[in-house]
Amino acid sequence: MSSHQTVSPGQTFLLALHLLPQEHWHTYWQNPGDSGMPTQIRWQLPEGVTVSDIQWPAPQAFSIPPLMNYGFEGSTVLLSEVTLPADYTGTGLLVKADASWLVCEEICIPGDMAFELPLAVARQPAVSEHHRPLFEQGKAAQPVALQRAASYQLQDGVFSAVIESKDDLLVDAFFVAATDLVEHAREQEISWQDGSLLIRQPQNTYFHQAPEQIEIVLTSGPQSFVVQAQRLDAAGAAQAAADFGLAAFLLALLLAAGGGLILNLMPCVFPVLSLKAISLANNSGDAARQKRDAWSYTLGVLAMFAVLALALIGLRAAGAAVGWGFQLQNPWLVGALAYLFFALGLSLSGLVHFGSRLMQLGSNLGQQQGAKGSFFTGVLAVIVASPCTAPFMGAALGYAVTQSAPVALLVFLALGFGMALPFLLLAYSRRLARLLPKPGVWMDTLKQWLAYPLYLTTVWLLWVLGRQAGVDAQALVLVGLVCLAAALWLWGRQQLGQGFRLAPQLSWVFALLAILLLVLLQPQQGAQQSAENRHWEPWSPARLAELQADQQPVLVNMTADWCITCLVNERVALNTDSSRHALTDYGVTYLKGDWTLRGAEIHAYLQQYQRDGVPLYVLYWPGQEPKILPQILTPNTLRDQLAQLANASSGS
């Protein structure tokens, strides 16, 4: 519905979605808490017409230990602001929207509906008097915006925020709008100190990245307020101190610099560095020029590492919506990383050589004189080093993707400075230049030893993949690694001049086959659970029918990640030792259906039992009618129900 029945060009007006669940049922806030799903509206508006995000009312807390959820009971009005452009020429405005929501009590029922609202457009707007009370209700339910300084930080596993108080802000609870930032069910701490309100709550274990700004709703009896809290370390320098301590941050920079220093021992980097070092040592020019060239080389190295860091930061920002921030939870990316580390390990072992042309190019540019030649030598030294830097770059990537952009940039610059440090030292000390070891067999031995950490990293990635996607996916990637090894072996023989006529084509066939196997990887639902903890099978109509045909007892659990009752029941009643033993004692196969993405097959199954939502628990016992269990389970419910069915079966 609209706040106006007639709107005019250039005007901003309100649209409302009115949710009216039955008594004791609730919908969800923008941060639903430990489970649930926020109401969403997808607008379809004419070009040039803009709409704001939902203006959320102050939420309520719904505690179902051990979980905590946030949402609304009763009549709830969600407002959005729509702005008509000043040059709008139409005589009418058709607003279309697709809304989806989740309503829960003992069960959770998702809902969705498409809406159309035609509005007249005229020079003078006209308010809708009929809907005025509803819009007033929606505005009154929204928290009052406080224009007060507020900041927050994450330190030692605790979320804390400081809000300017002026001794007039009495708060009894708070709600953090950012999801996965705090442990919602843990106790909140509220205190006042030196004219400021201090709020604290344990940090979420699965937290990944702190937003620059978050919204915090404060409640004081029937009143509510909202403040925008800036991350205390938004400037960048304090991010390390807040997230993992200043000492750890300095240690990370030191380790990064040390890693950059070690890169100079790698065979692909050393020729470029030694070429410039010898040129510097034998240069008859003045010391000032030598130092200038050394700093030009350093600037080139730092510039290239800065480019790499900015690329990483850009990928992380662009990929936030598709999970780059959670990259090790993506089985395809984990498999690709396993390919990468395995290929680099084979290169270090001498099976194939990467980057030789780039190394030659770097050497040619390195022969140029002056600051320009030194700068581009630094740039190309980093490019040439990329195959050899993989272990160090992998560590830097894994570290940087969990931190802010400034910290990621500093880590890469420290890595670059460590790489450039020998050239600086050589520029300032001719004695060190004379001590520089000559290239030799020892470098190749070191290179081959450094392959083994890469192989161990590949093993770790395969273990992660198996936990995520199951042993079948893990085996598929292992076959892909064999194909990759074959492709690189053929390529390496070509580099040595020992290949045969069809070797290049066959190499590409194996490489493409490895890629195809990775693309065809199918993650197994629920594979993230270890074998010793998983006591259920994925539900499917075929599997249920098969077990019933074999006269096997079956427990079916229809659940979803957004269903708070489902999660509570699993914690207190289904995933306990008592229930596991009961399933084993009575020979029951436990099937679990995941309706998080609302599949059609599970919806059809729910309809068989006149249900529109989850949870649904059904016990199948041979020779008896299916038994529907209560929506709220106790620790003894499953064993008691199985005992009743078994006794009834034996009595008959």
UniProtKB/TrEMBL annotation:
Keywords: Cell membrane, Cytochrome c-type biogenesis, Membrane, Transmembrane, Transmembrane helix. It is found in: Cell membrane. It is a multi-pass membrane protein. The chain crosses the membrane at residues 246-273, 294-326, 332-354, 375-401, 407-428, 449-465, 471-490, 502-521. Residues 516-647 form the Thioredoxin domain. Coiled coil: none annotated. Its main location: membrane. PANTHER family: SUPPRESSION OF COPPER SENSITIVITY PROTEIN, THIOL:DISULFIDE INTERCHANGE PROTEIN DSBD. This is Protein-disulfide reductase DsbD family protein. It comes from Alkalimonas cellulosilytica.
